[in-house]
């Protein structure tokens, strides 16, 4: 009888623990209330009450970014602590990324809408203010505008959010990087949604809706690429425009938003409390009138150069050698050999056959769009003109992408132009932009065009190659649009300079086509 009674008590205790929210240790921080199961997508954490709570202040809801869990706000980050000390009640959400299955803004937005309702029910009569990092800003706007939760929220603050996408997402879906992205698992539904063409389509669907006027939007951005030869530094060099190493500055702003500040932050530091809490604090409680009065405009520097990349890649096992053509007048070339395993050996052979001493910095990307990639980065200053060899070896079956970024006046004279507005036709051209004379004599191009269906309808994201690599007769490139989805152009350029020297570049372009057949591309 005593044993039966003990078993019954244990069952009742287990049932009670499933029904009543418990104080739970998660990511090194104690939360008094957990709505859901710790670490599982869909869960909501209610933060500790502040030492001196202010009933007039809204509740801060913290939303994480791509590949992140909610713990980024309180583990190794004092953002949560600073919010509590300032008298704010807080809540944290766990989106699909926390479960290792990053999803699009549509799926994350739907989940977030349900979580916002739970938070509002827990704090009856109080408004919520959203503090969102990176892709979390897009997930949040989706929840408010497309899933109808804007009445629960006053202000939305986005920190380093790619409202117009990131060229690094386009790169992940390019022909040369396809195999590496596949093995890394970074070619997924979430990264798909961050392609510049896809996000341009999202802006068309969103910015014309009346719901955008129901909340005050504030944006914060960074313009630091981070430590030299780090993954964010190389991301900044790849995009070669004002950015935080992952998101271009011009992508972080909204035409109807209030840009608070652009600061000396890279993408991996911008969300830390010691960096930006004091910056966003005045806008956590601003009224709409105050928000309008504080609206600021900030000029964005133009592209430093265009089409400065040479790209190749594929599968590797054992020793492999790639060629790289460097034209005369090149100031520097930065090499990044990305792979899903660290290399056993990497060496550079100059055009004269001599081995070039080079110090490659080897690091594993932990938090950008190429999470998990091993990056082997080196910079060549005043390199010898001609054909170089990059020889690498690995004892494991691997995939790789070689990305060479040129600092050369020739880059500014290459351009990819859309032949007509909204038309899926492009032309590779040469101009004398920035120079008194042309540097380019001849251009030859080949292009691979692939169609990537929306992962909502094709979960395997199997690409359909519409045009394989190979010579084409004209520098004009036409996308054979078949249906809605994303079309990735990987355009390989070979040419000669006016002095007769060879050069090579690669252009990656993302084009989205909606169900109405409209073309969406990054300006």
Automatic annotation (TrEMBL):
InterPro entries: AB_hydrolase_fold (IPR029058). Residues 1-23 form the signal peptide. Keywords: Signal. Gene3D superfamilies: alpha/beta hydrolase (3.40.50.1820). SUPFAM superfamilies: alpha/beta-Hydrolases. This is Triacylglycerol lipase. It comes from Laceyella sediminis. The lineage of its organism: Bacteria, Bacillati, Bacillota, Bacilli, Bacillales.
């Amino acid at each position: 009888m005593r044993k039966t009674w003990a078993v019954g008590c244990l069952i009742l205790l287990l049932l009670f623990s499933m029904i009543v929210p418990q104080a739970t240790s998660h990511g090194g921080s104690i939360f008094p209330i957990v709505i859901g199961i710790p670490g599982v997508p869909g869960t909501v954490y209610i933060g500790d009450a502040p030492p001196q709570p202010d009933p007039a202040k809204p509740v801060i809801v913290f939303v994480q970014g791509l590949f992140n869990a909610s713990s980024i706000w309180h583990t190794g980050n004092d953002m949560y602590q600073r919010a509590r000390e300032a008298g704010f009640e807080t809540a944290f959400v766990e989106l699909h990324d926390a479960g290792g299955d990053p999803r699009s803004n549509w799926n994350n937005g739907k989940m977030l809408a349900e979580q916002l309702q739970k938070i509002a029910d827990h704090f009856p009569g109080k408004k919520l203010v959203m503090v969102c990092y990176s892709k979390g800003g897009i997930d949040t706007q989706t929840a408010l505008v497309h899933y109808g939760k804007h009445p629960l929220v006053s202000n939305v603050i986005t920190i380093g959010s790619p409202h117009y996408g990131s060229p690094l997402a386009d790169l992940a879906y390019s022909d040369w990087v396809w195999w590496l992205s596949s093995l890394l698992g970074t070619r997924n539904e979430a990264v798909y949604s961050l392609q510049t063409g896809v996000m341009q389509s999202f802006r068309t669907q969103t910015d014309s809706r009346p719901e955008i006027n129901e909340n005050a939007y504030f944006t914060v951005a960074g313009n630091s690429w981070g430590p030299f030869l780090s993954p964010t530094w190389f991301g900044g060099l790849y995009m070669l425009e004002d950015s935080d190493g992952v998101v271009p500055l011009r992508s972080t702003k909204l035409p109807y938003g209030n840009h608070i500040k652009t600061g000396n932050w890279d993408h991996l530091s911008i969300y830390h409390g010691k960096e930006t809490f004091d910056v966003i604090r005045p806008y956590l409680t601003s009224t709409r009138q105050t928000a309008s009065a504080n609206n600021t405009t900030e000029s964005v520097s133009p592209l430093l150069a265009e089409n400065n990349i040479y790209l190749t890649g594929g599968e590797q096992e054992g020793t492999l050698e790639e060629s790289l053509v460097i034209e005369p007048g090149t100031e520097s070339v930065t090499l990044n050999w990305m792979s899903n395993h660290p290399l056993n050996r990497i060496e550079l052979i100059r055009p004269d056959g001599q081995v070039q001493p080079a110090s490659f910095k080897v690091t594993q990307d932990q938090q950008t769009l190429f999470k998990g990639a091993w990056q082997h980065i080196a910079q060549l200053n005043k390199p010898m003109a001609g054909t170089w060899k990059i020889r690498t070896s690995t004892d494991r079956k691997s995939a790789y992408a070689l990305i060479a970024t040129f600092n050369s006046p020739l880059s500014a004279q290459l351009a990819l132009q859309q032949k007509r507005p909204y038309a899926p036709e492009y032309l590779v051209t040469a101009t004398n932009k920035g120079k008194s004379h042309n540097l380019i004599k001849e251009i030859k191009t080949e292009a691979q065009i692939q169609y990537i269906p929306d992962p909502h309808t094709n979960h395997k994201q199997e690409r359909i190659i519409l045009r394989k690599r190979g010579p084409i007769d004209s520098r004009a490139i036409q996308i054979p649009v078949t249906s809605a989805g994303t079309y990735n152009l990987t355009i390989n350029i070979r040419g000669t300079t006016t002095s007769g020297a060879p050069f090579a570049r690669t252009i990656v372009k993302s084009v989205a086509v909606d169900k109405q057949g409209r073309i969406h591309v990054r300006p």
